[in-house]
Design a protein that fits this description.
Elements lengths: L1 H21 L9 H16 L4 H34 L6 H4 L7 H37 L9
Length: about 150
Amino acid sequence: MVKSGLIIGAVMFLIVLLLAAGISPLCAACVPLFTGLGAGYLAGMFDKPISNNAAIQRGAIAGAMAGGIALLAQMIASVINSLVLQNPQFQLGRIWGAEAVDPTTVWLAQFAFALCVGLLNVGLTAAFGAGGGAIWFSTAGKNQAPAL
């Protein structure tokens, strides 16, 4: 489960960093679906648990590990977004004719939003990781030879 969590975590780190810094921090909430399923399935492949409950548990732990790594990427992306938004011409409110936002407010809002989306990603990736573990057990796990 550690190996699969680290592998999928590295993939999530890159995807979340690119999406959250390049497009929008909200785009990172779409990542857990396939990465969580992948983390759970890989945890089953690497660990080969003997019961469905063990596969689900290991998949959830692997997904949570991967989501935790993605949380780090989300926070780095919030720093990048805050640096970009320091320039008032890039602030949406300024484009629409409102006053420019205070830089402290920009930093606090970016960090708070990144933390919320990052924690959501951890929970979703763990949940989908449990599903990936269950999928592994139902397709390949129950066909494995019993341990001697």
